[in-house]
């Protein structure tokens, strides 16, 4: 679905803006490893934003929690507050389940570390922040955190959900069902699926809406969602194809996702240890598997944030289970930081895998947003065989035509296709040297001749059918969003927008 830019701008303007914050003055005190309450979390982020005001910006997502707690987010970049051409965007989200609290403290500690390292002139952090725009959301569920903390932080479920008793990681639109239906009908449409969604069977929670709008409105390339209760890096798909409780669900980017998960697990001292015991006696331990798992192979989840990112936007996301204890004692947090620090840092560098570039009009030099970037793997397997395999998950260019496509090393054909232009294909070799920017390959597209445009014949509608998110065989009354707050329609219209 093509979106008229002028209409998109109107829709975007109609959405509530993210709230910028003027940080408070702070001291140079070292980070205190403790369980920060919601007020202390805000204060830590404000102090970091003040200390590193040249590279940090604090803002809140456009909706607060049910109990009206802002979803504070810290941006770190050498030019905070705006997207820069060819600079990829990254996010960490933690504390989605309110009683899984270690990720919340790790993300706060990471914010402090990045600021201090920038100020100290650390060359690796300086380079990372100069070529990456990083967003840190320490708590997506501050209300659940409050309940878990008020009740002692020892219950396995209490505080997991938000204040309306909804599990936020089951609350996103079920785009997996649309994607699997497309597969069954041999429709090669596996990306930006919000344009096929016409209604919902429930009203997503305010925290979910806020993150949905954030995902659709920011050109994220890579992200991770930090959970607790196990020690494993989990990658898409989270939902099984057949509906089975456990079933490996391959995505078109399976090799890239496995690489991303392995980057984190291999840099954690215990996650990939083949000899470590399971978190719960009798449970499975992922150490012999390198500390990684496919989501649906572990257990199938519908309506999760991980798959929503992949199927609604350009973002590849994995879920990190960072510790066996959901609510560990404060005395263990500093050691947990030391165990996770290298993995957290190295994972962010993966934002620069593969290829990036700018798609331009060859006559005017203007960037072309919403260009489809399709990739075929042509890596040679041996002397006589080439893989010759389409990766059926396209990304789109954004803003002024810039795009990013995460890929593992190999040989690829990359094709740019935009409405009104002749498609163009480049052959590239991806090597991914560590801590370097992605290979750059620009596309200068020639406009279609006038007579060709008049004689264009559209083939099968790539958008496929539209769906409601009710389970198969059930016909609930669709929740109709009020006209004045039709976020679903606006989010759908932002699909494939140039952000």
Automatic annotation (TrEMBL):
It is found in: Secreted. This is Peptidase M14 domain-containing protein. GO terms for molecular function: metallocarboxypeptidase activity; zinc ion binding. Residues 34-351 form the Peptidase M14 domain. The keyword tRNA-binding does not apply. Its cofactor is Zn(2+). It comes from Cherax quadricarinatus (Australian red claw crayfish). GO terms for cellular component: extracellular space. Keywords: Carboxypeptidase, Glycoprotein, Hydrolase, Metal-binding, Metalloprotease, Protease, Secreted, Signal, Zinc. Residues 1-19 form the signal peptide. GO terms for biological process: peptide metabolic process; protein processing. Gene3D superfamilies: Carboxypeptidase-like, regulatory domain, Zn peptidases. InterPro entries: CarboxyPept-like_regulatory, CARBOXYPEPT_ZN_1, CARBOXYPEPT_ZN_2, Peptidase_M14, Peptidase_M14_domain. The keyword Protease applies. Pfam families: CarboxypepD_reg, Peptidase_M14. The active site is at 321 (proton donor/acceptor). Belongs to the peptidase M14 family. Its main location: secreted. SMART domains: Zn_pept.
